[in-house]
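Notes from hallway chat w/ T.B., transcribed later so I don't forget. T.B. wanted the structure written out for a chain they're using in a teaching module, and asked if we could keep both sequence and C-alpha cells in one place. Agreed to drop them here.
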Amino acid sequence: MILQTEANNLIADTKAFTLIELILVMTILLVAVSMTIPSLANFFRGRSLDSEARRLLALTRQGQSRAVSEGVPMILWMDTVNQAYGLEEEAGYTDNDSKAVDFTLDKDLRIEVLNRNTRNITISHGMSSNPGHRNLPVIRFLPDGFMDETSPQTMRLLDRGGAAISLIQSFNKLNYEIGN
C-alpha cells in the first residue's frame, strides 16, 4: 500500500509543470510573437493594398459590362480627397440607380488619378456631371463597350509605407489592368 502511494505521487509529479517552467515557456512565446508582429503587419498591409486594387479593377469591368448590357453610360468616380470611389449610371438617364455602389478606402490607403498627357496628378480630365460627385475625376464607360477618351490613363493606390499599385489603361484602351 505504501509502495502504491509513492508510485502515485511520482506519476503526479511527472505530469505537472512547475511555475518556473510555465513562466519560461510563456517568455519564449512572447519573444517569438514580438519578433513576428512587424512582419505580419507589413504582410497584411500589402494584402490590403492588393485586394483594394483588385476590387477597383473589378469595378472597372463591372462598369463596362453594365454600360453594354443596360445601354447607359456608366461613371466610375474617384474622390481623391475623401478617399472613396464608386460606380453609377451617368446622371440624366434614370432618377435613381439602384445598382450604384460606393467604397471607402482603408485609412492607410490613398488613391491618385494621373492625367493622360502630363502624367501629373490632376482632376482636370473626365469630370463627373452627377450633382453628387461634381468635379471628381471619372472613368466613363460608353454603351458600345469603349471608354470615353477623357478617362484617366492611370490610377494609383498607395499605402502609408510607400508601396503602390497602378491600374493602367491597356494598350488597346478597352480596359484597365494592374501594373507596377
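Follow-up for T.B.: Residues 2-179 form a domain with the minor pseudopilin epsh fold fold (CATH 3.55.40.10). Might be a good example for the class.
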